[in-house]
Amino acid sequence: MNAPAKQERQRKPDWIRVKAPTSTGFAETRALMRRLNLATVCEEAACPNIGECWTKKHATVMILGDTCTRACAFCNVKTGMPRAVDPLEPEHVAVAAAELGLQHIVVTSVDRDDLPDGGASQFVKVIEALRRTTPKTTIEILTPDFRNKAEAAVESIITARPDVYNHNLETVPRLYPTIRPGARYYASLRLLESVKRHDPSIFTKSGVMLGLGEERMEVHQVMDDMRSADVDFLTMGQYLQPTPRHAKVMDFVTPQSFNAYAAIARAKGFLLVASSPLTRSSYHADRDFEAMQEARAKTLSAKGQDATA
User: Fold this and answer.
1) H or E stretch including 234?
2) 73 secondary structure, DSSP code
């Protein structure tokens, strides 16, 4: 019997290569996360920007443990039965933000389909702890879809008033059955729309990965769907295959193509667009938050001038 053929992996082009992290800042950030028993999506998802971000002491905390109840084909986070929720986690996140001196923090989580509220209450507790400990730190959350959970789960987070609510669509609807089988595209869109419906002042954000086999017009349709849900900020980055068992990279999208997508997205009315091979949801999130504030102020000013003209 012939042995199964090994899956060939495309060689990364030069524009996607990054240097291995070696800085003192990187080591200090890692030591802090270990001391506080905090997981980070930077490590668990094998983010290519970890060296740059951790050198600057910018880390994206991943709450609710390091084990996900789903098995998305693109994600490197381990799957299994998670441990009990750590009651000290919210305070530890706040301590980390204080010690890192973060002006803006991004907090994400694994999917916790095993919990009655999907882990929404832990997001609320983290936001409250951050407001107490580092009141000047702006808060961006990147949540799962809370599929099959009561709408009150998402509403509780909105009521806690994060500054940015991010939920990634990840890919085009056609690829959901193979890339994101545990999720539903339109359920994710409804979540994003509900944030704006309940509190229009909260910035909303969503992202997609390119290189999974999507067609150009499918990406354009996702942009239109996001705008219909009043999403403010679109991020687009290159999908990278974490291991041979994950979904294969179908295409390495060129920087020029990313720029072209960005131009189209801006024309569709997004307040802010980040589009490049190395763009990730939390990459340069502090800088992008300031840019969103400035863009909103300009938009409101322009509307005011039109109203008085």
Assistant:
1) strand 233-238
2) T
Residue with tokens 């980390």: 96
Asked if residue 20 has pLDDT above 80, the reply is no
What is the spatial distance between Cα 204 and Cα 199, in angstroms, rounded to a whole number?
Answer: 10
Higher pLDDT, 215 or 58: 215
Give the span between the Cα atoms of 269 and 105, in whole angstroms.
26
Q: How confident is the model at residue 5 (pLDDT cuts 50, 70, 90)?
A: very low
Residue position matching structure tokens 């939390």:
282
Q: Could you give phi then psi for residue 191, rounded to 5 degrees?
A: -60, -50
Q: How far apart are CA 16 and CA 84, in angstroms?
A: 37
**Domain 20-308 is classified in which CATH homologous superfamily?**
Aldolase class I (3.20.20.70)
Convert the pLDDT of each residue in 125-148 to its tens digit: 999 999 999 999 999 999 999 988
The SS3 call for residue 258 is: helix
End-to-end CA, the chain: 79
CA-CA-CA-CA dihedral for 110, 113, 116, 122, to nearest 10: 0
Q: 45: how many CB neighbours lie within 10 A of its CB?
A: 20
Ordered by start, the domain boundaries in the chain are 20-308
Q: How far apart are CA 250 and CA 239, in angstroms?
A: 9
| 3-class secondary-structure state, position 106 | strand
**Residue 262 CB neighbours (<10 A):** 18
pLDDT at 309 over 70: no
DSSP output for 215-276: -HHHHHHHHHHHHHTT--EEEEEE----STTSPPP-----HHHHHHHHHHHHHTT-SEEEES
Report pLDDT digits (tens) over 203-213: 999 999 999 99
* pTM over the 0.85 mark: yes
∠ CA 52-56-62 to the nearest 5 degrees? 80
**Tokens describing residue 58:** 């910018």
Q: Which amino acid is at 276?
A: S
